[in-house]
C-alpha cells in the first residue's frame, strides 16, 4: 500500500467512529432515558478521546508528508485531512474530552432549564462551557482572533470582520422591508386544531416529496429539530405544536434539506473526509432553499393548501392566495426557528454580536439574559416575556457551538444565489412546484451542489454552481420581490 492508501484506510476507520459518536448524539436527543445523561457524558468523552488520539496520531503527519495524490479528488482528501489534523494537534486531549463530557451533560441541563423557564439553573453550566470554548479558541488561534478560530470550524475561511461587514450591508434593507410590510394589511390568522398524528403523517409525506429517502433515514421528535449523520444513515427530527402546523411542516422540510445534502453526496466519498457537507454555510443553503425559496413559494403553497384541505378538512382559510400569505406572515416573534424570512437574519445578527462579546470576555454570563432582552427589545420592538422565548430557546450554546450562528445567514445568502441560478436554469419551475413536483429543483441542487460533498472549498462550491461570486444581493432582491408581491407594496 502507498502512503496515500494507508492514510485513507486509517481515515475511513476514523470517519466510521465519528459516525458512531454522532449516533450517540442523535439518541441523546430522541430516545435516551433522562436518567442516562451523566453516563452518556462519560461515553461521549471516551469516544472523543479515541477520535482525538486518531486525529493527532503522528503517523497522520508522516503519511501527509509522503502521500502522492493522483488527481483533484486525492488532493481534496489530503486538504481536508491536513486541516483536521492541524486543528486537532493544537487542542490538548484532556480539553477535547472534557468539552465532549461537559457539552453532553449541558444539553440535558439546558433542556430542563428551558422547560422550567429557570435561567439560573443553566448559567453555571453555560459559564463552564464558555470557559472551555475560550480555552479551545486560544489553543487554535495561537494569538489570533478567538472568535475567528471557533467560526473556522463551521465555515473555513470566514472571519468575523467579513461576516460583520456583510451583516452591516444587509441590515438597512431588511429593516426597510420589515417596516413596509408591517404597515400593510396583515394576512388572516390560522385558528384550527391540527392533531399530532395527522401532522406527522403529512410531515413524512412532505419529506418524501422533497426527496428524503426513508430507507436511509427516519423522522423522530425532538425539542430542537435537527439532522444527524451522513452517508447512508441520515436522520431528521421535527416538533409538533397542534395550533401551528407550519412549525412541524417547515421544520421537517428544513431538516430534509440538510439530510438530502448528505444523502446526495457521491457514494465514492462514503466514510472519507469528502463524504460530508463542506461547511455549515453551504449546508444551511440547502435547508433554507428547500424550506423557503421552494417550500414557501406561492406555487408550492398552492399545492400544499389543497393537500391540507384533503387531510384536515376546512381549516378556515378562504383560498390559496390567503394561504400563501399566512405561510409567509411577517411579524415580530421570539423564536428564531419560527421567524419569517424578513426577520430571520436579524435574529442571527443579534446572536452573532452577543456570542462574540461572550468569547471576548466583554459580556459576562451573569449579564447575558439582560443583554439578550435589551437587544431583543431594541431590534424587534417586543419585550421578552420568558426565558424559553429568550436566551434559553436555542440549544447551540449548551452544545458549545460558538461561531455557528453566523453560518445561518451565510446559508441564506448562498441560497439566494442558488435560487437565482436555479430559476434561470429551470424556467418552468413554478409549474412543477404547483404540482408538488420537486424533482427538477432538488435534482439540480444535487447535481450542482450536493454530490460534491467536501471536494471544493465552501465559497468555491457556490461559485461553481452559480457561475458568479456569492453576495447578499440576490437574497435581498428575492425578499423585496416576494414580500412586495405578497403584501402589495
From TrEMBL:
<comment type="function">
    <text>Broad specificity carboxypetidase that releases amino acids sequentially from the C-terminus, including neutral, aromatic, polar and basic residues.</text>
</comment>
<keyword id="KW-0482">Metalloprotease</keyword>
<feature type="binding site">
    <location>
        <position position="254"/>
    </location>
    <ligand>
        <name>Zn(2+)</name>
    </ligand>
</feature>
<keyword id="KW-0645">Protease</keyword>
<feature type="binding site">
    <location>
        <position position="284"/>
    </location>
    <ligand>
        <name>Zn(2+)</name>
    </ligand>
</feature>
<comment type="similarity">
    <text>Belongs to the peptidase M32 family.</text>
</comment>
<keyword id="KW-0378">Hydrolase</keyword>
<feature type="active site" description="Proton donor/acceptor">
    <location>
        <position position="255"/>
    </location>
</feature>
<keyword id="KW-0121">Carboxypeptidase</keyword>
<dbReference type="GO" id="GO:0004181">
    <property type="term" value="F:metallocarboxypeptidase activity"/>
</dbReference>
<dbReference type="GO" id="GO:0046872">
    <property type="term" value="F:metal ion binding"/>
</dbReference>
<keyword id="KW-0479">Metal-binding</keyword>
<dbReference type="Pfam" id="PF02074">
    <property type="entry name" value="Peptidase_M32"/>
</dbReference>
<feature type="binding site">
    <location>
        <position position="258"/>
    </location>
    <ligand>
        <name>Zn(2+)</name>
    </ligand>
</feature>
<dbReference type="GO" id="GO:0006508">
    <property type="term" value="P:proteolysis"/>
</dbReference>
<keyword id="KW-0862">Zinc</keyword>
<dbReference type="InterPro" id="IPR001333">
    <property type="entry name" value="Peptidase_M32_Taq"/>
</dbReference>
<protein>
    <recommendedName>
        <fullName>Metal-dependent carboxypeptidase</fullName>
        <ecNumber>3.4.17.19</ecNumber>
    </recommendedName>
</protein>
Amino acid at each position: 500500500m502507498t502512503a496515500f492508501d494507508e492514510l485513507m484506510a486509517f481515515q475511513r476507520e476514523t470517519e466510521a467512529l465519528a459516525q458512531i459518536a454522532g449516533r450517540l448524539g442523535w439518541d441523546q436527543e430522541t430516545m435516551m432515558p433522562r436518567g442516562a445523561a451523566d453516563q452518556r457524558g462519560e461515553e461521549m468523552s471516551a469516544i472523543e478521546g479515541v477520535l482525538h488520539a486518531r486525529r493527532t496520531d503522528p503517523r497522520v503527519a508522516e503519511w501527509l508528508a509522503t502521500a502522492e495524490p493522483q488527481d483533484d479528488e486525492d488532493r481534496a482528501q489530503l486538504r481536508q485531512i491536513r486541516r483536521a489534523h492541524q486543528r486537532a494537534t493544537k487542542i490538548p486531549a484532556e480539553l477535547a474530552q472534557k468539552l465532549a463530557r461537559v457539552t453532553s451533560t449541558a444539553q440535558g441541563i439546558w433542556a430542563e432549564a428551558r422547560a422550567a423557564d429557570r435561567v439560573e439553573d443553566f448559567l453555571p453550566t453555560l459559564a463552564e462551557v464558555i470557559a472551555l470554548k475560550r480555552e479551545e479558541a486560544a489553543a487554535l488561534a495561537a494569538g489570533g482572533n478567538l472568535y475567528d478560530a471557533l467560526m473556522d470550524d463551521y465555515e473555513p475561511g470566514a472571519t468575523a470582520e467579513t461576516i460583520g461587514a456583510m451583516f452591516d450591508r444587509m441590515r438597512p434593507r431588511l429593516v426597510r422591508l420589515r417596516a413596509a410590510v408591517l404597515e400593510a394589511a396583515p394576512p388572516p390568522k390560522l385558528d384550527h386544531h391540527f392533531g399530532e398524528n395527522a401532522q406527522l403523517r403529512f410531515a413524512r409525506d412532505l419529506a418524501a416529496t422533497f426527496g428524503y429517502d426513508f430507507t436511509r433515514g427516519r423522522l423522530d421528535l425532538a425539542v430542537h429539530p435537527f439532522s444527524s449523520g451522513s452517508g447512508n444513515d441520515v436522520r431528521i427530527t421535527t416538533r409538533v405544536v397542534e395550533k401551528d402546523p407550519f412549525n412541524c411542516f417547515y421544520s421537517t422540510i428544513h431538516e430534509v434539506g440538510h439530510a438530502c445534502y448528505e444523502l446526495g453526496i457521491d457514494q465514492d466519498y462514503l466514510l472519507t473526509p469528502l463524504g460530508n457537507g463542506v461547511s455549515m454555510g453551504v449546508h444551511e443553503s440547502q435547508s433554507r432553499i428547500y424550506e423557503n425559496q421552494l417550500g414557501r413559494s406561492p406555487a408550492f403553497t398552492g399545492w400544499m393548501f389543497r393537500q391540507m384541505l384533503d387531510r384536515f378538512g376546512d381549516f378556515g382559510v378562504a383560498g390559496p392566495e390567503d394561504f400563501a400569505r399566512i405561510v409567509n406572515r411577517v411579524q415580530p416573534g421570539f423564536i428564531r426557528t419560527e421567524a419569517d424570512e424578513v426577520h430571520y437574519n436579524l435574529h442571527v445578527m443579534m446572536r452573532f454580536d452577543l456570542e462574540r462579546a461572550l468569547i471576548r470576555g466583554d459580556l459576562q454570563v451573569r449579564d447575558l439574559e439582560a443583554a439578550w432582552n435589551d437587544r431583543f427589545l431594541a431590534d424587534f420592538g417586543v419585550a421578552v416575556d420568558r426565558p424559553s422565548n429568550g436566551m434559553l430557546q436555542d440549544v447551540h450554546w449548551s452544545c458549545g457551538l460558538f461561531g455557528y450562528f453566523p453560518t445561518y445567514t451565510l446559508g441564506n445568502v448562498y441560497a439566494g444565489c442558488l435560487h437565482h441560478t436555479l430559476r434561470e436554469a429551470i424556467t418552468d419551475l413554478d409549474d412543477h412546484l404547483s404540482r408538488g413536483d420537486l424533482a427538477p429543483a432538488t435534482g439540480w441542487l444535487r447535481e450542482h451542489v450536493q454530490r460534491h460533498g467536501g471536494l471544493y472549498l465552501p465559497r468555491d462550491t457556490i461559485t461553481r454552481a452559480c457561475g458568479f461570486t456569492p453576495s447578499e444581493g440576490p437574497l435581498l432582491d428575492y425578499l423585496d420581490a416576494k414580500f412586495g408581491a405578497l403584501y402589495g407594496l
